[in-house]
Amino acid sequence: MDAEVNELPVLATGELCIAGDTLARGYLERPDLTAEKFIPDPFSSTGGRLYRTGDICRKRDDSTIEYFGRKDKQIKLRGFRIELGEIENVLRSAPDIRQAVVELSDDSGEPRLLAFVVGAFHKAEVISYLQRHLPDYMVPSVFIKLDALPLMQNGKINRDMLPKDNVSLPVFEKILPRSELEQQLFSIWQTVLKRQDFGVTNNFFEIGGNSLSALRVAAMAKNKGMSNFRLDAFFRHPTIAAFAAQFSKHTELASSLVPLNATRADRNIFVLHPSSGLVFDYRNFAQELDGVANVYGLQFPFEMDAKSWPEDFHGLVNYYVKQMRSMQPHGPYSLIGWSSGGLLAMEIAHLLEESGESLAFIGIVDAKTPAQRKTDLSGKNKDLRRIEAVESSEIDQFWNDLKQHGEGWDSYLLEQENPDRIAENMVLASKYILYVTSGGHDRQIKSDIHVWWSSENVTDLGAERLSEWDGSSQGQLIQMGVIDTSHRGIVKNKQFAEDVKTVYMKIKH
Q1: Based on C-alpha coordinates, what's the Rg of the chain?
Q2: What local confidence, expressed as pLDDT, does residue 437 receive?
Q3: Burial profile 315-333: b = 16 or more Cβ within 10 angstroms, e = fewer
Q4: Omega of the bond prior to 310 within 30 degrees of 0, cis?
Q5: Mean pLDDT of the chain
Q6: Burial bucket for residue 508 (CB in 10 Å: 0-12, 13-18, 19+)
Q7: What is the pLDDT of residues 11-35, one digit of tens each?
Q8: CA–CA separation, 447 vs 237, rounded Å?
Q9: Are 144 and 123 in contact (CB under 8 A)?
Q10: What's the rounded Cα separation, in Å, for the pair 69 and 388?
């Protein structure tokens, strides 16, 4: 069921609920908990009750139920929502691990994940295993080896008795900076990560860094005179030594093509941005695809002056195709378009097919259907035009929105040399993307299309909209189902990544 106790379709993730004659009446002498967990059964005509288990699951096509973790063990760390049970499940599947529990600790002033583990394990091997199966921000920074986990009388783990106090930070190899450039980068890392116990050979994302703190590194580097610092290069060379060695070569990718994982696979997936123009929301997805495909984000060219942005939709699509071909000259190509990126993906696919290239995979994620676009073009978007300036009130609203929902983006922008100019460019870009995509065509392509939806979008628009992509492909139109999440959260959702991985690995390339 979803949060509003509506039954979800097959493959959608939600809370497992139980009803029937064998259901208990409630919790003994706990009327508050009984009222929360034992709710009226919407399917019962006799006043039955429904028990909310707190288990996060989904039903597969064969009616088996897949378990993901506990609803009540969800935490938020550095802007990311995390199911501790998901980390625990992966940990328990690692070689030589018998039992494992993961907790969030902030006793040092910096929130971090602690893993309490029972088994004869090697820490480096376990970390390597976790990095292959989890996004970087879900890998615990501290591992505590125990002879046994503390238990309560009923056999459940007593989390209150876990030794969380005074747990020391992990110690890293410390090779000191050997050049002026390395020293500059080292000082920036110390400021951003709020620690000093690392060296120039340590991976930024293994010592507490994440996508957001990488943005802060980029901002501070540019403020210190490193004008050609590229974030895409930083993702590919995430140690001070490796980045410094590459920095002076000036051979990095154009800024619109952003590597989102560290895989050296023989296949690529190109992901298209939504109306924000940014691709960092795909980073969780990219980490899940580590070892399967190199994931490259096609990000809007914010660094270009607004007046030099492509004139129209066709120009923007051609710009992105050129970026793709700089990395992969020929097909078969794989594309994923989320939100406004859905239309971009369809137009890129059409352009590639027209030039004789083949496509291996196209995913359309919570994007407006051709019918929805026609409604917009005859209604709210009919008078769209290219805007080259924005009102000061729009900039103020942008900053307010960032502070409320930006997960730290306001801090990143404030560290830029001219934050208001960057903010203005981002507002302009959002309006520009809406303008140019309104001039796009609803294409029919030859290749198969896989379509995903968020439950938020289906609730707002109605389930009948799911069929409105029919006719967009001369091949198969494959509805992958509804994922119980928001429009903004769908590409961060683990189920979406698992679905793509399953489909992608079956495709002949």
Answers
A1: 24
A2: 73
A3: ebbebbbebbeeebeebbb
A4: no
A5: 79
A6: exposed
A7: 888 899 999 989 998 888 878 888 8
A8: 35
A9: no
A10: 48
**Kind and range of the H or E run holding 216:** helix 211-223
CB atoms within 10 A of CB 173: 10
Q: What is the per-residue pLDDT across 41-93, written as a single tens digit (0 to 9) for each?
A: 988 888 899 999 888 888 888 889 988 767 766 676 755 667 788 788 889 98
Tokens (6 digits) for 146: 């125990």
Longest dimension (CA), the chain: 77
Q: In whole angstroms, what is the distance from residue 243 CA to residue 236 CA?
A: 8
Amino acid residing at 245: A
Q: What is the pLDDT of residues 483-492, one digit of tens each?
A: 888 888 899 8
| Type of residue at 265 | A
Per-residue pLDDT tens digits for 354-397:
999 999 999 999 988 877 776 665 545 444 454 555 566 665 66
Task: Name the 3-class secondary structure at 364.
Answer: strand
The answer to whether the CB of 410 falls within 8 A of the CB of 403 is yes
Q: What is the pTM of this model?
A: 0.54
Torsion of CA 426, 427, 429, 435, to 10 degrees: 170
DSSP-based three-state secondary structure for 191: helix
- pLDDT score at 404: 56
Closest-CA residue to 108 (of 158, 160, 164, 163): 164
Q: Find out whether 272 and 337 touch, Cβ atoms under 8 Å.
A: yes
| 153: three-class secondary structure by DSSP | coil
CA distances (Å), origin 293, targets 204, 238, 341, 500: 22, 19, 20, 11
Nearest one of 78, 28, 302 to 209, comparing CA atoms: 78
Question: Residue 106 above 80 pLDDT?
Answer: no
